Fold this sequence. Notes:
The complex is a heterodimer of chains A (about 110) and B (about 120).
Chain A: E1 3-5, E2 10-14, E3 19-21, E4 24-26, E5 32-38, E6 44-50, E7 56-58, E8 64-68, E9 73-78, E10 87-94, E11 100-102, E12 106-111
Chain B: E1 4-7, E2 10-13, E3 19-25, E4 30-38, E5 44-51, E6 57-58, E7 67-73, E8 76-81, E9 90-98, E10 104-106, E11 110-114
Amino acid sequence: AQSVTQPDIHITVSEGASLELRCNYSYGATPYLFWYVQSPGQGLQLLLKYFSGDTLVQGIKGFEAEFKRSQSSFNLRKPSVHWSDAAEYFCAVNTGFQKLVFGTGTRLLVSP
Amino acid sequence: GAVVSQHPSWVICKSGTSVKIECRSLDFQATTMFWYRQFPKQSLMLMATSNEGSKATYEQGVEKDKFLINHASLTLSTLTVTSAHPEDSSFYICSARAIAQETQYFGPGTRLLVL
C-alpha cells in the first residue's frame, strides 16, 4: 500500500537558519508529490508539487523540494526561515486514484 | 486562482441535531471534491470522494448514512453530519480538484463542536 513517512514530528529552527523537512514515500510507480502547509486552525495551502521533469521544484514563499527516486524522497528546503514559517507541514502523494495519502506532518517551530 | 471556501468556519450544535457544511470552488469547476477529517495534532483522514452528479465514494469505516455528501454542481459539495454526537466533534476540511488536474486545493476548514 502507498504510504508517506515524515520522520520528524517537530523541528525547531532559529530564524534565518536553513530548513530541511524530510519526506519518504512508498509507491511502485512515479508518484505525484506535494507539500502543503497548515497554520493553526486553517486549511492547507499548496507549497509546491512534483509531477515530472526537473527534480528540483520551486514553490511559494521561497520553498523548494527535490525528488530523489533512488531514495524515494521528496525533502522540502528553505535557505532562510522566517518566524512566519512556523506551521505544520504535510507531505502527500497522489497514488493515481485521485486520492492523496498524507504523511503525519512535521510541526516547525522557529526560535528568535 | 484556485480558491476553495467552506461555510461555516465553525459551528456548535446539540447532540442529535444535523449540521450541514458547504464547500465551494470559487474560481474553477471541480469535478471532484474530497472531504477530510482532522483530529487535533494529527494528519488528515480522507472520509469520502465526491464526484459531481454521482454518489460519493466513502472510505472504509466511514458511515455513509451518518455523513451525507451531495455534489450537485461543479462548484458546490455539501457534507451533512446527521444526528451528531460529541465524538463527531472535529475539524472537517474539503478539497477540490479541477477537471483534468491532479492538484487538490483545500478549503479553510470547519470546526464542529457537538455538545
